[in-house]
Design a protein that fits this description.
single chain; 89 residues; mainly beta; 6-stranded antiparallel β-barrel
Length: 89
């Protein structure tokens, strides 16, 4: 049986869900600081919003798929902070 993996841009994806620090310019991340490394955002590939049960005020997450100088990252902003959800390297 062939192993199935989630791929982004033909790269293997790993889930992290860890807090990150970002530099923002014009409402877009320009740098991401994570695990003592600095990643420079080169392109925002896609943006989307996830908010379930809006009537009960559940968390809203503003997601971005970004290409950096070292990896492709799925990040999101929620409740005033940024999180790295997944990374493809």
């Amino acid at each position: 049986m062939q192993e199935q993996r989630l791929l982004i841009n033909n790269k293997k994806v790993k889930a992290y869900y860890e807090p990150i620090t970002t530099e923002i310019k014009e409402a877009k991340p320009t740098r991401i600081y994570w695990r003592h490394n600095t990643y420079y955002v080169q392109d925002i590939i896609e943006c989307w919003v996830i908010q379930n049960r809006w009537w009960s005020r559940e968390e809203r997450r503003d997601y971005m798929l970004v290409e950096t100088d070292g990896a492709t990252m799925e990040i999101y902003h929620s409740n005033g902070g940024w999180t790295i959800a997944r990374l493809a390297d």
